[in-house]
Amino acid sequence: MTRKRKAVDDKIQNLKSRNLELSTDIESLTASSDQLAEKAESSCDMSILVKSNAMCKASKEKVTEMTELDKKLADKLLEQKNFV
Predict the structure, then answer these.
(1) Rounded mean pLDDT of 15-43?
(2) DSSP sequence for 1-65
């Protein structure tokens, strides 16, 4: 295996790991956001709603990051395929 191919394979593994981390973060943020929104609704506490909205925004940003990461991963997989 050439060094260049090894580097591409390592980059693919890193991208897959980061993708998995982002997926876990998104699920966690979404669940926490939903819980806080329900709590804010029942207690009429606006500060809790603000926290919920912040978590929701963070989740959306991570979704955007994950989409960009998926594009990079697709490019690297295509690059890897070209080595074969």
Answers:
(1) 95
(2) --HHHHHHHHHHHHHHHHHHHHHHHHHHHHHHHHHHHHHHHHHT-HHHHHHHHHHHHHHHHHHHH
Query: Do residues 36 and 51 make contact, with C-beta atoms less than 8 angstroms apart?
Result: yes
Q: What angle do CA 36, 38, 40 make, to 5 degrees?
A: 65
Mean pLDDT, the chain, rounded, equals 92
pLDDT in tens, 25-34: 999 999 999 9
Residue pair 27/59 in contact (Cβ under 8 Å)? The answer is no
Domains: count for the chain: 1
Helix (H, G, I), strand (E, B) or coil at 84: coil
Domain range for 59: 3-83
CB-CB contact of 26 with 62 (8 Å): yes
